């Protein structure tokens, strides 16, 4: 691939995120503390190359129970870029806030036909959607979460610049942010000095500006 072609490009990406407490939660996780968590069992056996099943016929050692994920350097425990996990984190909180609003329906105006609340025992997805449109909260890492009247999340993207490093490979450098939850006129935040354009230039030439 001719990296000179893509070097200098600017695009949008899911922003990196830090979820407070996630690393510590993973480090303290143990199958013995959460019986029935098959996902954790599978992770444990994969990371430590052992088995937790006493009847296992596999030619691998048995797990001792003294293993720890704290110093396990694997892609399963690496939370340095929790951008995708952050979406799950926000989604769970958003639904929790929506359900909380649903449970408090009797204290305010009843939103459904005939001035009724949703049945706690059989709440429907469209009823959850109604309350999701009212959700507005800030995560522990300072990110505002809210939805429009259709239930779509407010756009928030990292602005990235495709830059060529000393080895000639492409790296994605964050040069700013687009966040529609900010006040009008403040949605874009760009570090113009951090942009490297085509040809390893730090400025856009007059000819390129005219185009």
From TrEMBL:
<keyword id="KW-0675">Receptor</keyword>
<feature type="domain" description="Receptor ligand binding region">
    <location>
        <begin position="7"/>
        <end position="165"/>
    </location>
</feature>
<dbReference type="GO" id="GO:0004930">
    <property type="term" value="F:G protein-coupled receptor activity"/>
</dbReference>
<keyword id="KW-0812">Transmembrane</keyword>
<dbReference type="InterPro" id="IPR000068">
    <property type="entry name" value="GPCR_3_Ca_sens_rcpt-rel"/>
</dbReference>
<keyword id="KW-0472">Membrane</keyword>
<keyword id="KW-1133">Transmembrane helix</keyword>
<dbReference type="InterPro" id="IPR001828">
    <property type="entry name" value="ANF_lig-bd_rcpt"/>
</dbReference>
<dbReference type="GO" id="GO:0005886">
    <property type="term" value="C:plasma membrane"/>
</dbReference>
<protein>
    <submittedName>
        <fullName>Extracellular calcium-sensing receptor</fullName>
    </submittedName>
</protein>
<dbReference type="InterPro" id="IPR028082">
    <property type="entry name" value="Peripla_BP_I"/>
</dbReference>
<dbReference type="Pfam" id="PF01094">
    <property type="entry name" value="ANF_receptor"/>
</dbReference>
